[in-house]
Amino acid sequence: VADEESADGEPPRYRDVLRQGAFMAFIAGVFVIALTTIGMDTALPLFMLSVGLPAWSTTVAYLFICVMVAIAARWVARIGSRVPHLRILAWSTALCSISFLVIDLLAGIQNAVPAVLFAVLAVGLTLFSVSDAAGNALSANIMLTFAPDESSGRHASLLQTAWAAATAVAPGLYAALFSAGRILPWLASSALLAAAAAVFGAVYSRTR
């Protein structure tokens, strides 16, 4: 799906890369993944405390995510050897959309016993971790499929820019969403991720 290099062997210009509709759609989806992932770092501790979970549980939640991402990465590597990476990314992004809805359920059952709250949280974080592992493992490889051989620098810089932009925007945006309503970060993330999953699916169908 990569554009050909110019006849003189020069790498594609940024203007040429920006005209790659499928690649820019992929970058938009990556921005959504980055935005919601970083936003989760802002909203999750506040949300957990708001539903009555103890302060120490926020640290345990992040340790749980780290362990599950490491475990899921091995599954992603195995599946990735048989299934197109962009298709996996579409699936995993949809899974992340579901994970945020599961986490959001805590607001409706906050009066349940702590064991139930932790169980629901564990399910949501497990789904998120699988999705996060897929995104971490596959995004760079997918980016390379859009770039000419040995000339991926401009494509890579746009991928990095998507993450940098999300890093700048997410903390303030998600703090504002949480202040407006504690369920809003999860609902907004779920909707954005569902749209990103659809975009990845469309790009996969167009480029396969």
Describe this structure in words.
The chain is mostly helical. It has helices at residues 14-18, 21-50, 56-80, 85-104, 114-146, 153-180, 184-207. The radius of gyration is 18 Å and the shape is elongated.
Derived structural class: mainly alpha
> Which whole number gives the mean pLDDT?
90
Radius of gyration: 18 Å
Listing every helix as H and every strand as E from the N terminus to the C terminus, the arrangement reads HHHHHHH
Rough outline: elongated
Helicity, as a percent range: over 70%
Strand content: under 5%
Low-confidence runs: 3-7
User: What is the helix tally?
Assistant: 7
Biggest sheet: strands, sense, closure? none
What is the straight-line distance between the termini?
8 Å
How many β-strand runs?
A: 0
Topology, element by element:
Elements: H1 14-18, H2 21-50, H3 56-80, H4 85-104, H5 114-146, H6 153-180, H7 184-207
Helix pairs in contact: 2-5, 2-6, 2-7, 3-5, 4-5, 4-7
Features:
208 residues; 79% helix; disordered N terminus
Brief write-up:
Helices cover 79% and strands 0% of the residues.
